[in-house]
Automatic annotation (TrEMBL), chain A:
Principal subcellular localisation of the protein: cytoplasm
Pathway: Cofactor biosynthesis; molybdopterin biosynthesis
Keyword Translocase attributed: no
Protein name: Molybdopterin synthase sulfur carrier subunit
Annotated gene: cnxG
Species of the source: Lojkania enalia
UniProtKB/TrEMBL annotation, chain B:
Organism name: Lojkania enalia
Gene that encodes it: uba4
InterPro entries found in the cross-reference section: MOCS3/Uba4, Rhodanese-like_dom, Rhodanese-like_dom_sf, ThiF/MoeB/HesA, ThiF_NAD_FAD-bd, Ubiquitin-activating_enz
GO BP terms, alphabetized: Mo-molybdopterin cofactor biosynthetic process; protein urmylation; tRNA wobble position uridine thiolation
Transmembrane region(s): none
Matching SUPFAM superfamilies: Activating enzymes of the ubiquitin-like proteins, Rhodanese/Cell cycle control phosphatase
SMART domains cross-referenced by the UniProt entry: RHOD (SM00450)
Catalytic activity: [molybdopterin-synthase sulfur-carrier protein]-C-terminal Gly-Gly-AMP + S-sulfanyl-L-cysteinyl-[cysteine desulfurase] + AH2 = [molybdopterin-synthase sulfur-carrier protein]-C-terminal-Gly-aminoethanethioate + L-cysteinyl-[cysteine desulfurase] + A + AMP + 2 H(+); [molybdopterin-synthase sulfur-carrier protein]-C-terminal Gly-Gly + ATP + H(+) = [molybdopterin-synthase sulfur-carrier protein]-C-terminal Gly-Gly-AMP + diphosphate
Main location: cytoplasm
Any Gene Ontology CC annotation: cytosol
Family per record: In the N-terminal section; belongs to the HesA/MoeB/ThiF family. UBA4 subfamily.
Lineage, broadest ranks: Eukaryota, Fungi, Dikarya, Ascomycota, Pezizomycotina
Cofactor binding description: Binds 1 zinc ion per subunit.
Designated name of the protein: Adenylyltransferase and sulfurtransferase uba4
Binding residues for Zn(2+): C265, C268, C353, C356
One Pfam entry name: Rhodanese
Amino acid sequence: MYYPSSASALICGGSFNPDPALPLTTSNMVKAPPGHFSILYFAAASTFTAKPSEHLPAAIKARHLFAVLESKYPGISEKVLSSCAVSVNVKYIDIEGDDAADLDLLIEEGDEVAIIPPVSSG
Amino acid sequence: MTATSVIELLRQQIESCEAQLRDLRQQLAEAEHDQQQEQTHDRLRHATDPHGDPLGHDMNFGIHDDFRSEVFAALSHVEADKPSAPRWPLDKSEYKRYGRQLIMPEIGLQGQLRLKNASVLIVGVGGLGCPAAAYLVGAGVGILGLIDGDTVEESNLHRQILHSTGRVGMTKVDSARIALNSLNPNVKLVAHTSHLTPESAIRILQLYDIILDCTDTPASRYLISDTCVLLGKPLVSASALRTEGQLMVLNNPPLRAGDSRGGPCYRCVFPKPPPPESVVTCGDGGILGPVVGVMGILQALEAIKLLTRNAQPPLTSEPMLAQPSDPPSLLIFSAYANPMFRSIRLRTRKPKCAACSAQASVTAKALESGSLDYVQFCGTVNPVDALSPSERISVDNYAKLRLAINPFTGMEPSKESHILVDVREKVQYDLCSLEGSINIPFSMVSHTSSHPYNEGNGRQQGAEEQTWVSSLRAYPDKPIVVICRRGNDSQITVRKMKELGLDNGGQRWIGDIKGGLKAWGQTVDRDFPDY
């Protein structure tokens, strides 16, 4: 009904999306280069990091995983990781709390880590 | 409301009612047809039952028509007094209907009888619940319960396959009953037409053998899982958003809390709920129909596997050993990834789980008394209230600003009077936008640090992220008006812009449009698409 043409012709007129063609999926993950492990980001984790996966330097202890990610993506611990499940080589690991069973597990070169936030909608 | 829109509205209502009537007539016709068939079938059975009709062979040609009906009446009377055991374990029509699964060793006669004697509850009759219910009803479960408090909306129809255009506005449970009854009238459908609550959960769930969590909030997921642990019921839980889904069979085997041989529960896998502001609904994040469909169908599959497990004795002469249940796993489906499925092996029950360990704090008494507040546990999001009234403009005033005199400056409208920034993501901006607006996606705004000169915080600023800031800086005099879909992200953006100093210490007005494009479509431009 009301379509004023007054406020047109402002600046640029374009969009600032950094890379609209980049889908946030884990498609065709390449093998980790020497000295690295692969990390897959699902659901909210891939939204936060704006990537489906990447390679990080190995080896690290599981207890340090979240700190590494926090330094790379400030705010991710509180907003995403605090409620996530984590797996190493498709096995769930327990790193929640000071006495968790897998805190000393070593994430080694070539391993595949997955960050799995709970998806609740349906 | 204008006369035209009233007429349009009435037309739509009539159309919807007529569609519902058509649906009901079809239901009625089908039901009458079924009844008629059943009666004919019964008559035929009485008339031709070889055990009940010893005279049949001899008398075929010998009895006069007048007597024949009397003889048959007398015979069927005798039969009615002494009903014989059915000859076959399933009805003839059931052999036909379930034939394709009956001939599979995984199901067989015993499996089908188990399904027939089973009761399954579907919590949530939406994108997951619809396909799950369709396949379970198709497979012939005895009783299917349906819980949902919602009504069918137009935006549900692309994925919630039991509902239909004509049933928009009907309760989801009633709509699903119509569809499921016409699919397989042998299944008894039980309707629960309000949302599950902690007070009602035990009472309802205890009526069923297996529970399917097809809901869409963290609070309902914890509630259903806790109740399943308390009642010793296996739980098939699934979820989906955008292009991804998750599936778990929980509390399987459903042993009592503290028994470490029991299967893990939802709390064992996800002990902490996600922060409420990070929870994305299908309405905000989007969902692809087949993605949620796949997950719902997998739930039906897992339920059928659970119900028919060990239905067939092994062929070997070894003593029969119950097959152990599958090790617990979390199946992740990513529609656009390769591979599409990843199965994560889960641990056993968590030693300190609040629901299923020996130290469990979740009890039936706490649940039923309402002292377990799941909504509080998962947190709630308050509506964003980041701006003062002077930083906000109503859609009506903004319409005036675009058409007439600026209420703030008293200036005549001009093409370049202000900058309108739309912060929806690009894909939404491309659907529809206000003329003259520019798009700066909120994801980019929120990833821009408010302290660009502080190098010490580790976050690298991409060159492109800076572009939007410098572009706005290049026009220091023009007021900036920010708009989004509903009026939340726009407020946060205004805050961020001021933190970045784009308001030149208060020299330039920056504010947002209250209620966003939704309000714009409702009150200013009714043709503006609502999606």
